[in-house]
C-alpha cells in the first residue's frame, strides 16, 4: 500500500517539512525588513512634511510683510495725492478748468486699465479742450 498524497521516501518527507518551515522564516524576515522600510519611509515623509510646513509658514510671513509694506506705500501715496488734490482745488481760477480736467483724466489709451471703451469720451474731452464752448 503506497501513500498517494505525499512522498514515499522518508527522507523526502523530512526535506519537505524542512522547506515548509524555512519558507515562513524567509517570509518573516521579509516582513520585518518591509516593516522597517515602511517605518523609515514614514519617518522621512513626516520629516519632509514638517520641513514643508516650516517653509510655507516662512513664505506666508514674508508675503504678509510685503503686502503690509505695499499697503503702507499705497496709503502714503494716496495721502500725498489727496493733499495735492485738495491744494489744487483751493486754487480755482477762471479759464483753468480744462487744465484741471486734463490732470484728472488719462488721455493715453494704452496705459488705461479700464475694461470699458472710453475712446469716444476721451475724444470729446480733447475736442472741448481745444475748442471750448462759448456761452
UniProtKB/TrEMBL annotation:
The main location is membrane
Q: Where is this region: Disordered?
A: 1-25
What name does the UniProt record give this protein?
A: Clathrin light chain
Its localization reads: Cytoplasmic vesicle membrane; Membrane, Coated pit
Per its database record, what is this protein's job? Clathrin is the major protein of the polyhedral coat of coated pits and vesicles.
Biased composition of type Polar residues is found at 1-13
| Gene Ontology CC terms, in alphabetical order | clathrin coat of coated pit; clathrin coat of trans-Golgi network vesicle; postsynaptic endocytic zone cytoplasmic component; synaptic vesicle membrane
Which residues fall in a coiled-coil region? Answer: 31-84
PANTHER family associated with the record:
CLATHRIN LIGHT CHAIN, CLATHRIN LIGHT CHAIN A
Q: Which PROSITE patterns match?
A: CLATHRIN_LIGHT_CHN_2
Please provide, alphabetically and separated by semicolons, the GO molecular function terms listed in this UniProt record.
Answer: clathrin heavy chain binding; structural molecule activity
This protein's UniProt keywords: Coated pit, Coiled coil, Cytoplasmic vesicle, Membrane
The keyword Coiled coil belongs to this UniProt entry's keyword annotation: yes
**Any one biological process term the GO annotation gives:** intracellular protein transport
Q: Which family does it belong to?
A: Belongs to the clathrin light chain family.
